[in-house]
Design goal:
Rossmann fold; 3 domains; five-stranded parallel β-sheet; 45% helix; 21% strand
Length: 424
């Protein structure tokens, strides 16, 4: 061995001695579980880390053990106090001794755990998610959506084998009111670390056909408080706030309210309560329709009654007005009749005088009266002639006098224009 050199065993033994002298008692330590597993012997092995509060980067890391005899006591105590078990991602306040082994290196031997610290950290994380949602201005968005008046087409997010889903379906399908409610199941993991992403995937599938649904029901059966931690996920809660359909939660808790409950349009305790809520909405609408029906009947009867009274008044007034109108028209017709009689008589008198005058004129121009005054009419073939056109020498003519008829033969025709007016 070179002069001055020491073995690895020597250096690690000296480190172990320093640590043993420095850390002589047990210490309360805060850390987050990164990984853990329990072997067949019942020993619990953990990987613990500390993260920077701002960057969430790991700034310290070490191994820890809880020996089987101690773990068998700490585990049930922790679960009973917190409602959940030890798992990755939770923070612990634990009491431990500092151990160092030349072969296995540095580790902590946990002898006690304070569950109150873990509960406080979970509550702190929940409040941090609530603060983020509030700061983003989205925490009330799903609650502010108008809830459907008749929610009959329900998209259900659940596990098909979950007891809560069975309870929900039985309440919906066999409701006492006989309402018809259509449900479509979108399966998802409803607890554990995979639940948020699985539920978000189901919501994405619903979004693609959202016009076919009135609302979304997110349901699961009962479980421990730790099982509900997934519903405090920021990503899941944010997705619910942005969803365009109202979301109803019924995730099986009786005491605590998750962040998903806080941002959902409606939060019920159990799947059965969700079914009853939907049925109550339909029943409320049915009652409203019944009230509107009764109100409509009352208004129709009132309108008919009021209109009937109005018609009676109008009929009475119409009778009076008709009589007045007919009386006025009768007086008017009487005046018209008298005026018409006067006008007719006057017209008849004038027409009679005209006829007498015309008769006298007709008598004056009657051929007999003209002939009586010394005139005659010359006829050729029974027609009176006015000129020599068509008359030939030798033509026989008739001359009609007032008394008698002369037949003569034409010996000479004078075609001049002298009409003999000077000889008359």
């Amino acid at each position: 061995m070179p002069e001055g050199a020491i073995t690895l065993t020597d250096i690690l033994r000296r480190v172990g001695g320093v640590l043993k002298e420095e850390f002589t008692s047990q210490y309360w330590i805060m850390a987050e579980i990164l990984e853990m597993h329990v072997n067949r012997s019942g020993h619990c092995y953990l990987e613990l880390v500390e993260k920077d509060d701002k960057s969430d980067q790991i700034i310290a890391r070490t191994r820890a053990t809880i020996w089987a005899s101690r773990y068998s006591m700490l585990r049930p105590y922790f679960e009973a106090s917190t409602g959940g078990g030890l798992k990755s991602g939770i923070k612990l306040l634990f009491r431990a001794t500092v151990e160092f082994h030349s072969l296995y290196g540095f580790s902590l031997n946990i002898t006690d755990i304070d569950p109150a610290y873990t509960l406080g950290d979970l509550a702190r994380k929940k409040q941090e998610v609530i603060r983020r949602l509030t700061g983003d201005g989205v925490i009330d968005m799903n609650r502010e959506l108008p809830f459907p008046i008749v929610p009959q087409r329900i998209a259900v997010i659940s596990s098909e084998t979950a007891a809560g889903y069975g309870d929900f379906m039985e309440s919906v399908l066999y409701n006492n009111q006989g309402f018809r409610i259509e449900t479509t199941l979108f399966q998802a993991v409803m607890q554990g670390d995979d639940a948020p992403s699985s539920i978000i995937t189901a919501l994405d599938r619903i979004f693609l056909q959202m016009t076919e649904f009135d609302c979304v029901a997110m349901i699961r059966g009962g479980g421990s408080r730790a099982d509900l931690e997934c519903y405090n996920s920021y990503d899941l809660a944010y997705f619910i706030t942005q969803f365009p359909l109202p979301v109803i939660t019924g995730i099986g808790h009786e005491r605590d309210q998750s962040v998903a409950d806080m941002v959902a349009a409606r939060a019920l305790k159990t799947p059965t309560a969700v079914a009853e809520f939907i049925i109550d909405q339909l029943l409320t609408f049915e009652f409203r329709l019944s009230e509107l029906h009764d109100r409509l009947g009352f208004l129709v009867k009132k309108i008919v009654r009021d209109k009937t009274m109005g018609l009676d008044k109008l009929a009475s007034g119409l009778h009076y007005l008709s009589r007045r109108y007919l009386d006025r028209r009768a007086d008017f017709m009487s005046r018209i009749e008298r005026q018409l009689d006067r006008e007719t008589r006057s017209l008849m008198t004038r027409k009679k005088d005209l006829l007498v005058h015309l008769e006298k004129r007709a008598e004056l121009v009657h051929p007999a009266n003209i002939l009586k005054r010394g005139y005659s009419i010359t006829l050729y073939d029974g027609k009176a002639i006015r000129d020599t056109g068509g008359i030939r020498e030798g033509t026989l003519l008739e001359t009609r006098l007032y008394e008698g008829l002369i037949t003569s033969k034409v010996e000479k025709i004078n075609t001049g224009n002298d009409k003999g007016e000077d000889q008359l």
